[in-house]
Prior knowledge:
alpha/beta; Arc Repressor Mutant, subunit A; Rossmann fold; seven-stranded mixed sheet; two-stranded antiparallel ribbon
Amino acid sequence: MTATPDEQPAQQDSTVSDATLSARLPQRSRPATLPAWSLARERIAPYDLVQFMMDGVADFCALYAAVELGIFELLAHEELTSDELADACEADPATMRRLMRWLHGRDFVGTYGGRRYQLTELGQVLTAGAERSQRHAVLVTGSSYWMDAIRDLTGTICRGHPAPPSGLSPYDHLARHPDLSRDFDLFMTARCAALGRDLAASSDFEHVRTVADLGGGLGGVLSEILTAHPQVRGILADRQDVLDRARDRLADEGLADRVQLTPGDFFDRVPGGADIYLLSSVGHNYSDAQVVELLIAIRETIEAGHNPTTAEVWIAEGMLPRLPGAASRWHSTDIRMLALFPGDGVRQSDDYCRLIRQAGLHVRKVSPLSCGQTLMTARLAEQ
Length: 383
């Protein structure tokens, strides 16, 4: 029987340089999860595939526990044994060893010197300092509100709409829970970075002076565009409590003087004066009728503006595949939206084309982005 790291005899520590230590960091020798879903269906027996899906519930809960306990943050600074981790986390040593055994088996951690754990490349993604950290995504997804909503999926399907666990919508719940709201902000910021870079590279912005990001949160997408194109100014429209947090973030990035913060409900009032009106990951929260209503409000703002023939609407969303039964990660996103929001969820590009036409707009281009989302651009319909 192979001994676990804490059961192996201690080895004498030796002083090594940072470069040497980096070279010795454990590398991932195999994927920690199954390959793409389409490949998994071809390679794994049906019984085993269903078992894998059920195991995923326990796996995520174990990952959430490790993040919530701060294990990844502790190992980001030094190598530790499971007993040392248990002491730092005020946890039971025996159960901590079992959790670390799971993390080791899933390649989140490796060992150096026989007893001490250290982060692998996969584990580093769960630290707060990672470039695209998943730490805050795990904390939000594993929070009681999100988990209770998913557990009530049967009820949601029978009722035809979700029943918020706390009686509050997700955003109202976040407004009343500052710690969770902060995690959600950082979750969205990490997710927005790649999309923002893709959008910034999708056009030369030569004739663009102002981009209005409707429902843009902390301005993660907008800030990427403004950083890449110094001549562009921004309008960020969202709830007042969100903009209060966005103000500090934009100031930290040196963009505060280039962004106009517009609080309120953009269904009631769309800020004017923009060359591009951006809806990024907004539509999946709302029903078809609400999306059309919002697009009509944008169209009317464009018609009343200074540039009705050139102003554009940009819709950036994850899209379901057009081929029925085709595998896509956006199916999982759609189920999460079903559990959380009473809207129509993730759509196909054809659905958005239909909604855009209903709003009196004309689709100019549909472009896949490297981040996995799709960009649809539209203008006023030709008369």
